[in-house]
Protein 1
Amino acid sequence: YQGMFAIITPALISGAVAERIRFWPFCIFTVLWITLVYCPLAHMVWAFDWFDTSVPADKRGAGAIGLLALLGALDFAGGTVVHI
């Protein structure tokens, strides 16, 4: 799911730079963009406390720990990360 959005988003960006940039610089941009922009934003929206051992086992995954999720952002279809 997240991998699909991580690839679709640079594909959307490619429409703006088509025939204006060579392929290899665009590949480098894509890798850097996914690493430095997409992954942190995805974590801010979709991070939950699944692996927090201080939370009882039956309550894990119920609490948001991502910054945007803590601020009340709800994202069920991935649009928040893609549009930001």
Protein 2
Amino acid sequence: MEFEELKDRIKSHEGFSPKLYKDTLGKKTIGYGHLCLDTEDWKEGVNYDSKHLNKVFEYDFNIAVKGADALLYDCGDVPQKVKEVIIEMVFQMGKTGVGNFKKMFAAIKDQKFDVASLEMLDSRWAKQTPNRAYALSDIMKDV
């Protein structure tokens, strides 16, 4: 299946909880980093089934793929590893959040992946989740 290694990496970075918890920004989250929306009916203290939460992950992952595709649209043909880094960033921060990395996308468009990796680290995201940011930056740099 496509993107299985990427999915495993995202799951590893996100961790898993069958119960609601608050993420580093204080937002309600469940499963593999699923941001709970007000329109969803998640209940405090309930242990949710991992099969259901895996379906939620797959749904979120597909949204991240579509978001990454949209963000990379103007960048031409990019290597698979670059696309995977952007998918994971979108999974974590959303399309809008990743869309703010203007200098990173300019470097990707110019095929300057070492510059793009540095631009990733020049962010609030890298300060908030440094282990993940540096891991993804290293992947980008080594393309």
Protein 3
Amino acid sequence: MQLPQLARQIDAFYLEMGETFSQAQARANLNCLPNCGRCCTTPEIEASLWEMLPMAYAIDRQGRSEEILNELLATQGPTCWAYQAKGEEKGSGQCRQYADRPTVCREFGVAGLRDKNGGIRLSVCKYIREENPQQTVLAENTIAQWAPPIMNEWVMRLMQLHPSILHERRPINLALAEALNKVLLYKGLNYS
């Protein structure tokens, strides 16, 4: 499969995934907090280069691939490159590449997880949980009625697009740098 075709398939998958998880948050009445980007400043956030292909292609369409790649290689900090802070408060900001965000960003907030007995339990961001404790308990108690998307099932669907799509996960900025590198290499090999 050609690299641009894979990126388009991942992008289409991400569109469906984003809509599904957003609708579930709305049904549970548990949405991400306004201007909250605390998860974007967490060094443990990882992705694979394949998951970052849609973002890398979006950056390339903007004509900024080399610029952003150099920026990423020069400053490997814990904050996601796509995160744009607002003001002085840590974690207050937004994603400047929201439409192209990877799997981890789409699943975060409110989702379902299967427990060892096959039941569904709710996974809720700790900040959403702290801000809306009664609504979180209500959502947990009525989980069968509003049926959150199950993270594991979406991951399995994603893996059908490319067998190693979730392999070799690394810090999100490094994964983006590798995706940009791959896009530039592909363009160089196919356009020269």
